[in-house]
Automatic annotation (TrEMBL):
GO MF term set: nucleic acid binding
Residues covered by the 3'-5' exoribonuclease Rv2179c-like domain: 16-163
InterPro entries in the record: RNaseH_sf, Rv2179c-like
Gene3D superfamilies: Ribonuclease H-like superfamily/Ribonuclease H (3.30.420.10)
Protein's UniProt name: 3'-5' exoribonuclease Rv2179c-like domain-containing protein
Length: 181
């Protein structure tokens, strides 16, 4: 397998992003509370959303204990503000997004832009799950950090976990190619 040149590796590195969201799910809808994104070069984005109802979220014991304290005092941002700030932060444009149990995060992220027709063409339509890749590789991952469920703490942790498996990702890709042929 041919290895990418150093400048290609740098380009790939610059376009990988690790993220986490915290949200209020009432069994019907997901309402974003906070989102954090960390670039592979270490730049960080962390914002508090105005999508959720403060009273209803505060009535949820889990959110009240673990999530809401992390965003206390942060200004709340509308979806329009979040879109503009993410549009500016996500340069270079992401080629891949990584999360930990990212299915819910992907939905919360995409809701910032609206429905499927409103998604920007540059936004990946899927998120890679770092924990799933680690499992395929038989790689143990570190435990969760203190202050888990603070989106920024968790996004940083996704990045750390990714770097533990990064050198072996070609093994997963090769196995997928063999299995698909």
């Amino acid at each position: 397998m041919e290895r990418p040149h150093a400048d290609e590796q740098d380009s790939r590195r610059d376009s990988r992003y690790f993220y986490d969201t915290e949200f209020h799910w009432d069994g019907v809808s997901i309402r974003l509370v906070s989102i954090a994104v960390v670039s592979d070069t270490g730049r960080e984005f962390y914002e508090h959303s105005d999508q959720y109802d403060r009273v209803r979220a505060a009535a949820d014991p889990f959110l009240a204990e673990h999530v809401l304290p992390a965003v206390a005092g942060m200004p709340r941002r509308s979806d329009a503000e979040l879109r503009a700030r993410l549009d500016e932060f996500l340069l270079p444009r992401p080629t891949v997004l990584w999360a930990d149990f990212g299915a819910w995060d992907q939905v919360a992220l995409m809701q910032i832009w609206g429905n499927m027709a409103q998604q920007p063409g540059w936004l990946p339509m899927s998120t890679r799950n770092v924990r799933e890749y680690a499992l395929l590789l038989g790689q143990r991952l570190p435990g969760y950090p203190a202050r888990r469920h603070d989106a920024l703490v968790d996004a940083r942790h996704v990045r750390r976990m990714f770097h533990l498996i990064e050198g072996r990702l070609d093994e997963v890709e090769e196995a997928a190619r063999r299995g698909g042929s």
